[in-house]
């Protein structure tokens, strides 16, 4: 029985030998000069780019659980800042989605499952004693619109980003790909120019 990894490696060898990669060749600069922060949900893997008319090379896409920017100096913000200053991105789109797994995520249930998979209760207690608030670290959100807007505000108000950067908030329907605009960043960016 082939392992998942061996199946991937076998496919990859054929992919390279057949030069299938040639159809995906592009540069590191996003052609549409945008960054998309979105969820890692499997339903969005192919749906989101197709629903947004994106091809390989059009956008920098940053994925995490819930499309949430949680820390102003975390890896998501670092990626956004690099995309703006080093890769010429001019707009940011935060795209959450309905029926997200982060809605109502319960830290205690996650930690219970971690213990069932071999993480000791002592380790969890050690992390808590070390000042890591596991309930905060593993919390989800109650409302996707509020979560998207929280991330939009954090990006818009970041001290290392230009105030006239357009940061938009959208929510996608994971079945149809339909986008609901929650907040267009154009008005905010134009007001910030003054």
How would you explain this protein's 3D organization?
The protein is an alpha/beta fold. Helix content is 41%, strand content 16%. The protein has a 5-stranded mixed sheet, sandwiched between helices. A hairpin with a 6-residue loop joins strand 4 (166-172) and strand 5 (179-183). It is globular. Its cofactor is Zn(2+). Keywords: Metal-binding, Zinc. This is carbonic anhydrase.
Brief overview, please?
It is an enzyme of class 4 (lyase). With 194 residues, the chain is of the alpha/beta class.
pLDDT < 50 stretches: none
Q: In CATH terms, what is the fold-level topology of the largest domain?
A: Beta-carbonic Anhydrase, Chain A
CATH architecture group name of the largest domain: 3-Layer(aba) Sandwich
Order of helices and strands: HEHEHEHHHHEEH
Sheet with most strands: strand arrangement? 2-1-3-4-5
Shape: globular
| Helical residue percent band | 40-55%
Largest sheet: 5 strands, mixed
Separate helix tally: 8
Strand content: 15-25%
According to DSSP, the number of beta strands is 5
CATH C-level category of the largest domain: Alpha Beta
CATH homology group of the largest domain: Carbonic anhydrase
Average pLDDT taken over every residue: 95
Rg of Cα set: 19 Å
Q: Separation of termini? A: 64 Å
SSE inventory with pairings:
Blueprint: H1 4-17, E1 34-39, H2 44-51, E2 59-64, H3 75-86, E3 91-97, H4 107-116, H5 121-129, H6 134-137, H7 144-156, E4 166-172, E5 179-183, H8 185-193
Parallel strand pairs: 1-2, 1-3, 3-4
Antiparallel strand pairs: 4-5
């Amino acid at each position: 029985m082939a392992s998942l990894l061996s199946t991937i490696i076998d496919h990859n060898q054929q992919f390279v030998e057949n030069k299938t990669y040639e159809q995906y060749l592009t540069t590191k600069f996003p052609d549409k000069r945008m960054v998309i922060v979105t969820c890692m949900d499997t339903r969005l893997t192919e749906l989101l780019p197709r629903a947004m008319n994106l091809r390989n090379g059009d956008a920098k896409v940053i994925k995490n659980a819930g499309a949430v920017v949680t820390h102003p100096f975390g890896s998501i913000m670092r990626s956004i800042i690099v995309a703006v200053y080093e890769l010429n991105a001019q707009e940011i789109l935060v795209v959450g989605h309905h029926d997200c797994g982060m809605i109502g995520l319960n830290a205690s249930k996650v930690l219970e499952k971690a213990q069932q998979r071999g993480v000791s209760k002592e380790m969890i207690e050690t992390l808590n004693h070390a000042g890591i608030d596991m309930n905060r670290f593993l919390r989800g959100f109650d409302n996707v619109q509020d979560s998207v807007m929280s991330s939009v505000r954090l990006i818009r108000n970041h001290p290392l980003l230009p105030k006239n950067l357009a940061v938009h908030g959208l929510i996608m329907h994971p079945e149809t790909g339909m986008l609901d605009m929650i907040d267009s960043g154009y008005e905010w960016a134009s007001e910030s120019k003054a």
